[in-house]
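Task card 7
Instruction: Convert sequence to structure tokens.
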Amino acid sequence: MTFLPSGTPRSSFALIFYPSIRRCVLRSLTVPSLLVIAIAACAMSSSALAQGMGWLPNPTTSPAGGSIGALTAWDPDGSGPRNEVVVAAGTFDFGAGPQEQVATWDGAHWTPLGGVFNSWLYYPGWTHLLVFDPDDAGPRLPQLVISTSHVIAVDGVTLGGVAVWNGKQWTRMGDGGPSGAVVALGTFDPDGV
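Output:
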């Protein structure tokens, strides 16, 4: 019995399950000139699992022009009507040539998330994405998307090693935060609620 479907790239190293579109997304750095996210038919039904899973082709609507450095799932409107989306950090071409930036995939379309990361020094494994909800189930929307790398500057504004997408724009994470490389990212809930 194999855990992953046949044809899974050997250098794959991240997998995200998306309940809203019933797919799994695999992060891989194997083919730099093509979209390097594979979408798998996953958990569709018990019969589908019993028969095994296969990787679906890469989406043809992809503007990806290079490698994807990080993935996460994000619900842009909390309990609102929109579904979760995949958030990817990498190299995308939305008409101005390949540029480092963050984009979302809704199961059918890619959309840039904010501006171009024009001073982002990309190193595989040094780029991280995390979704954080500062008030848990409270009324504050949306959840924040946090990106880290060596140096982040969005549309010419230097944000240091950590940038936060607040639903409208990328901003620096607080005052006096890290200004250099951030190589790990996680969440902590001090009261466990």
